[in-house]
Amino acid sequence: MRKILFSIFLGVANLGHAQSVVAEHLSEVSAQDKANALEVVLTGTLRRDKRAPGKYISLDDDFRQLRDLCWQMRSLDLSGAHLDSVPANALHSRHHLQKVVLPANVKHIGSQAFFACDSLETLVVNAKVPPTVDAFAFGNIDLSKVKLIVPKKSRKAYKKAAGWSAFFGKCPNTLVQDPGLGRIPQAVPVSLIPIPAQLEELKGVFDPTHLGQIIDSPELFNEHEHLLRILQNRCGMKSLSGEGKARLSINRSLPEEGYHLRAEGSDLTIVGGSPKGVFYGLMTLEQLFYQQPRCKAVDIADAPRTAMRELMVDPVRNWLPYEDLKDFIVEMARYKFNSLHIHLVDDQAWRIEIQAYPELTEKASFRVGMDDMLMPIGGYYTQEQMKELCRFAAKYHVTIIPEIEMPGHEVAAIHTFPWLTCAKLENGEVPIRTTCGVSNELLCPSSERTYEFLETVFRELAQVFPGQYIHLGGDEAGKPSLDCWTYCDRCQDLKCEIMGTDSLRGNREGNWRLQKYMFDRVIALLRDELGKTPMFWYETDFVEIQPGCIGFAWRDGLTQAAIDAAQRCDAKLMLCPGEHCYFDYPMGLNDMPEVNWGMPTTTLEQTYSLDPAWGNGSEFEEKCLNGVAGTLWSECINSTERLYYQAYPRALALAESGWSPQPKRDYSDFLRRLAPITADMHKRGICVDY
């Protein structure tokens, strides 16, 4: 499916412009020529603009343009350019790239500069002295298949140089940890994320190689399989042949996701409040083996602070293939996230099959362009795929939460069915949006056809996704107020009827009441008839959070206002404030994404500093706090590897925020524990910025 779509789009994207580009700087080249370039030759002093606090990096940045705008590039020749350093992430996850030529003056290769350039066949380095190479510069590339060409007299130096020697021999498999069965743990501190509520390091070690039997019950078949996987992948065990016993059991008096783990000598015991609790005990056990296949003996009692720990992905702006969703679930579950929120609909595409409306995916799931990236972006998930994904996620105790945006961010649907918006467009067509931002086109709340459409969509979704939650979007329609409803006579009639006055007719004031009217009708369907819990992005002009719904506090600086609304309405709230939880923002200055719509930085420490109670005390936490969420909006995330890069390690900090007791948390200690976790992620080929 992906290859077929790519072939189709390749023809669409190529409009007959030159496929070879020769220039001093890419800013001299037209956008379309960059998009169609197969061979790029740069001859100037490459520009690597620096971002200052409060400023955004210039569009003249050559490496950002090479990576994100020359999406078809197969060959890059920098031999005539002045370049003393290839910066970090320079050509990150450019899967088409086959050949690179570096100039004689290059002295340094930055971290992840060529990460996941997995089609690379030839690398020419004209420098006589081997450039220094940062860790993971050539990560996720089979270097044994890459031909390295260097000056003849420098070949011996390259063979001995750190970062280059792997090109001359068989590259070690970095995706599997070396079991090292002969080693005994020395004074290696226990490093777990999230940190457990109670952890006692016992005398001696736990040696899983002496396990001979797993004792459990039929309802723990899934967890039994996970334990076998851990023992094989982490400890090199192909069979159980010792005298030790692993006991997995359930004690309903424990919290549902809580567990008690004791690993000592040759015996292992994990008791959970449910299969979920046993699973989280196993995820803790697996982390104990991240550094060595034997670990210190430990006794751990643990349970989560919040009910929901969520990550959100956005396959709308840039496509996220179905199989990659599975891999993302596996990784997030390691750190006890229990919900994956999938943003399926926005102005730029419709990504879920609706059988009653096949036109949605036929007309609105494919386009060329995302802001200045003129690349083809297309794909959608079938209902059978999503059903299978829910079954797969259940093995990792992850709930899939679908999101259908309304009433704003619905241009893809309005493009397909113009009658979904207000009357002035019934005879026209709204083009699918290829830029970020907010569209003026909203679903029409005064038309019964709108509700017929929404009811059909949500009824189908309820059959596909068995989980409790469905997300309705809801952001950026009433706030900032838009004029779509202001100039619709039917909408103004409805607003005046709802408010019992004509005084606000023909202006924006009070338009939010139309959104509430629409939400009330859809919420009644989901909550009262389909038995689902509606979620939405809380906006301060909503005034209330309807009974049985969950709001998301997301706007930077307005979290307390959302908390006040939740307390006033006796409602549940998810915390994902932008200043802590927006992982699509760069983690530091000059980091990816460099060019964007105005993102601030969200540092690792900012994420870790999130207190889910927001300083409001135990009453709010007990009555209103539902959990925490991290968002990965994909306007600037154009590969799966980039998704991981943006998510981690900040998602690890958020995992601890949502799971661990506040008094147990300490940022300095988190950084200590983070090092072996990220080292293990690197070994498994996970792109993590640390």
What does the secondary structure layout of this molecule look like, with pairings?
Elements: H1 2-13, E1 20-23, H2 31-36, E2 39-42, H3 62-68, E3 75-77, E4 85-86, E5 99-102, E6 108-109, E7 122-125, E8 132-133, E9 147-149, H4 155-160, E10 198-206, E11 211-215, H5 221-235, E12 244-250, E13 259-264, E14 267-272, H6 275-288, E15 295-302, E16 308-313, H7 322-333, E17 339-343, E18 345-346, E19 349-350, H8 359-364, E20 366-370, E21 373-378, H9 383-394, E22 399-406, H10 411-416, H11 448-464, E23 469-473, H12 489-499, H13 512-529, E24 533-537, E25 550-553, H14 559-569, E26 572-575, H15 578-581, H16 604-608, H17 617-623, E27 625-632, H18 640-647, H19 650-659, H20 667-683
Parallel strand pairs: 1-2, 2-3, 3-5, 4-6, 5-7, 6-8, 7-9, 11-12, 12-14, 16-17, 16-27, 17-22, 22-23, 23-24, 24-25, 25-26, 26-27
Antiparallel strand pairs: 10-15, 13-14, 13-15, 18-19, 20-21
